[in-house]
Every structure is written in structure tokens, then in C-alpha cells.
Amino acid sequence: MTRRMSTPHARSIGPIGTGSRIVGGLIAITLPIALGGFGWWDAAAVFIALPLIATASATLVTEAYARLDPAALDARHAFCSPPACALVGLVVAAYVGLTFATPLNGSVALWVWLGGSMLLAAARGYGGCEVLAIPNLITGRDDQIGCMIYTPIDRAEARRQAGRARIAAEVRPR
After folding, report:
1. What's the total number of domains in the chain?
2. pLDDT tens-digit profile of 10-50?
3. Whether the Cβ atoms of residue 157 and residue 17 lie closer than 8 Å to each other
4. At residue 2, does pLDDT exceed 50?
5. Bridge-partner residues for 5, per DSSP?
6. Three-state SS string across 24-43, please?
């Protein structure tokens, strides 16, 4: 995980990564709502509880790995790094706890929140795990961990763009 303070945010994803996050986000929002509905408890989870849980979990995971295994934080582009798995595990475990303690509608709120996070990541050009898109916006940081779905897409797109830039540089008259 890399920690950089946000100034004007530079896009770290290309058009394919952006488009795939938009499509994934829209599906993650619309499908669960169409199949299971969306109530007040779901809205509270999506707009209050899950962003706070994710922000606290991201801080906990970042600080724990900074002390225990700083090298793991440098593996931010690995799609299944230990910090990524720990963060996702904490958020999902907290959400499962919420479903038992409140009248949340199954997994609808979790999917809607993830979908909104994907859309935010697409809008900001954020290339890390969508679980961190909202916490990064809240804290003004740019923590990044790999994403099981989008990291391979982003890597392939970055290689393709680097290859095009290299070819353009070779073809350019001197």
C-alpha cells in the first residue's frame, strides 16, 4: 500500500480501466436493488456505516502493516496482497455483523456501496481496490492496494500504452 497525500489527483487508470469500473459499478448497484429492493437501513449502511468502517479498517491495516511488515505495503500492485485481503476481510466481517444487528437487506447494501465505490474510482481515475476509493476521498490520501478484478486490466492497459509510447518515440523523426 502506498501512502501519498492527495493534491490534484492524477489518473492512474486508462480508458479501459475506467470503462470496466463504470460497467462493474452500474451492475453492482442496479442488479441487487432490482432483485432485493433498497430500504432505509440499506441507505444508512451505504452512506454512513460502510464508508466509516472502510476508513477505520484502511487506517488499521495500513498502520498494522507499516509496523509489522512494511514490505507488504510496497506490493500495492499485487492483486491479492496480504494488506488487500486483510482490508477486504475486515470490511466484509463488519458488514456481516451489521446484517445480524440491523434489518439490512442481505447483501444489497454491500453491493451498492461497492458499486458506488467503483464509480467513484472511475471518476477519480483511482487504480487501487475500490474498497479504498471512498476512504481516500474522505481522508484526502491516496492509499492503494491491488484489486483482484481491476489490477490485471490496469496492468495490461499500462503495458499497451507503454508499448505505444515506445513505438511512437522510435517512429518520431529526429
Report:
1. 1
2. 788 889 989 999 999 999 999 999 998 999 999 999 999 99
3. yes
4. no
5. 141
6. HHHHHHHHHHHHHCCCHHHH
In the chain, % helix, strand, coil (3-state, to 5) comes to 70, 0, 25
pLDDT, residue 129, reads 77
Could you tell me the end-to-end alpha-carbon distance of the chain, in angstroms, rounded to an integer? Answer: 41
Q: Which residues pair with 2 in a beta bridge?
A: 144
Task: Report residue 18 as a C-alpha cell.
Answer: 475506467
Which pLDDT does position 168 carry in this prediction?
65
Number of Cβ within 10 Å of residue 51's Cβ equals 19
DSSP for residue 172:
S
Is residue 4 a part of any domain in this protein? no
Residue 163 domain-assigned (yes or no): no
C-alpha distances (whole Å) from 172 to each of 132, 158, 164, 169 are 40, 21, 12, 5
Specify the 3-state DSSP secondary structure of 88: helix
Give the domain range for residue 45: 15-158
User: Phi then psi for 8, rounded to 5 degrees?
Assistant: -60, 120
Average pLDDT over residues 115-136: 87
- Give the three cell numbers for residue 92: 466484509
